[in-house]
Amino acid sequence: MKRTDPYLKIVEWSEEDGCYVGRCPELMLGGVHGKDEKKVFAELCQVVEEWMANAEASKETSPTGMA
Predict the structure, then answer these.
(1) Residue 33: how many CB atoms within 10 A of its CB?
(2) Which of 15, 23, 33, 44 is the most buried (most CB within 10 A)?
(3) Which residues lie across from 20 on neighbouring strands?
(4) What is the mean pLDDT of the chain?
């Protein structure tokens, strides 16, 4: 299990934006978007991983208490 697995990652089609939008509500991350659903999900996973690495480096804890 990866350290980012506990976080909900949502990718859904946005009629308003005309593309897929990816977000991670627990970390208040959003704005990952594109025309390819799988690429958006992969990018979202990378963003969550980077967020976790930055939080660990600065000794912050995540909303779920994971560091």
Answers:
(1) 17
(2) 44
(3) 13, 34
(4) 87
